[in-house]
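Example record

The entry below shows one chain as it appears in the dataset: sequence first, then structure tokens.
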Amino acid sequence: MAHPIHEANEFSPYGNLTRQEFYLKHHILHQKGFMINRQKMKIYTQSWQPSDLSVKLKGLVGMIHGYSSKSSWLFELNAAVIVEKLEEKMAHPIHEANEFSPYGNLTRQEFYLKHHILHQKGFMINRQKMKIYTQSWQPSDLSVKLKGLVGMIHGYSSESSWLFELNAVAIAKSGFFVCALDLQGHGFSEGPRYHFTNFNDLVNDCLQYFDSARTSHPELPHFLYGESLGSSMALLVCLQQKTAWNGLIVSGVARGSWKKKFIPVWLLNKLIEAVVFFAPSWRVPFFRSPASISYKEDWKRKLEERSPNRHTCGKLTAAVGLQFQKFTEYIERNCHGLTVPILILHGGDDMVCEVTGAKRLYNSVASKDKTLKIYEGMWHQFIGEPNETVEEVVNTILSWIEVRAEVTSAE
């Protein structure tokens, strides 16, 4: 978010705008008046707050100007930036979601309009000649100087739209260009539903799309975020592109330990390869759908299941189970070569991917700038937690990215 001082000029703190146009542009509700003090004097007062009155206010900030100054003019530019900053950090779109729609009572387009988001979507053709759905979000005010680019990769049986995109919008509102794709067999992308036979195909799709996005924004710092399966894809991308990214954020990472809970010993190693050979698309009946144990709040689990793009069965196929085993073992062997700054987030009560995997990843990577944050009591998908926890996690992500974006931009 750019400080309003960038718009000021020699003649006006509001630049070429009127004061009212300035407030409108920055989504500020401004109120003014007079109070009568003990000496019966009229004292001018004013206040600023987000114009969206549905935003839950985070706090009250009183401001007192200096000698020979006043609360308006240049001084109030700092008041405006504080209001915008509080709105950025606080107004996560999850507050508007309900059991039936992540956009609440709004249409998707009304949702973007309310949050001042420019949304673009399309398809790319991958190496296998498949149509892969892509989309991006950024502030609708194109005069805003972007802080960085954030690529996002969703998890297994999820998608880049619906609940997942609420985090994308929250990050975009803070001044970032955010982009994501639907993995093969997920969302609007082509491919057998929730089924793939080679994890490198998914990694190649990510490389193709994010390379294009980064090429379109070469001046920005570049960050990569992945959750669950997406965290493994993000790790694999960064292992291939060692210096291309300025930061990596992984949430709910799987690192070998997941298999003990979901795939019995008899199905592992050579035996699972035999099963895949004869029935690669067989859905393992004793494997619980990840969504059923990923969302702590029941209404959010139901909302996820109501996605128009969701397949009725979210269970792993035998081939996917084998691929999980292969890429987690690959990451296990090679993550010591990871030097990118990394933020690792994990739920203390994650029933899909054990927290020990996150701890081992933290201890194994060679990154000098590495942070491990474990949220006690949190399940696999942090968007499925109470809204206050969702805000806490996203604010942690934003603060981590913003610090490193500033350092990169200053270099």
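Notes for this example: The longest strand covers residues 28-36. The chain is about 35% helix and 15% strand.
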